[in-house]
């Protein structure tokens, strides 16, 4: 009688072979060319709209926030359906610091838009926020890829 802990008749991989298989699987995590760029552009637009929306009148601002949150959820669902996986900006160890660094200027721009609710501030803050989010998103992907390569080389 075999218990669940006993090995089956199939040959077992060596640890080196297992690591090679993990590395091959991780190679498939890279999104198709152009897809990540599309995501970064859409993400930066959403961030820009969210920051600029802080200058809207108080009666409209909650609805704008709901629209932005729904847009972010749609972006996540779109990515997951296309690639089969989703990775938040906070989960990779080193890449998360890019996310935290992005939040600092975005929060400052949000406060500026909130404190000066005029159209030119909303457009300026939103545009700067979109540029910051785009640059941070590209940098995040670069750090994430390097972190994966470094982890594979250490193992």
TrEMBL record:
Where are the bilayer-spanning segments?
A: 36-56, 62-79, 95-114, 120-143
Instruction: Print the keywords alphabetically.
Output: Membrane, Transmembrane, Transmembrane helix
At the top level of its lineage, which domain of life is listed?
A: Bacteria
- Protein name stated in the entry: Uncharacterized protein
State the organism named in the record: Microbacterium maritypicum (Microbacterium liquefaciens)
């Amino acid at each position: 009688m075999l218990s669940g802990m006993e090995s089956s008749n199939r040959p077992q991989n060596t640890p080196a072979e297992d690591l090679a298989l993990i590395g091959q699987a991780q190679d498939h995590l890279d999104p198709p060319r152009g897809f990540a760029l599309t995501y970064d552009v859409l993400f930066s637009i959403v961030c820009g709209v969210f920051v600029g929306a802080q200058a809207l009148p108080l009666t409209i601002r909650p609805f704008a926030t709901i629209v932005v949150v729904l847009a972010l959820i749609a972006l996540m669902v779109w990515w997951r359906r296309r690639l089969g996986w989703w990775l938040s900006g906070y989960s990779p160890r080193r890449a998360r610091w890019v996310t935290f660094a992005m939040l600092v200027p975005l929060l400052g721009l949000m406060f500026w838009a909130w404190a000066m609710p005029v159209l030119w501030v909303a457009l300026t803050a939103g545009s700067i926020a979109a540029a910051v989010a785009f640059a941070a998103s590209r940098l995040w992907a670069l750090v994430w890829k390097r972190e994966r390569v470094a982890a594979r080389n250490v193992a």
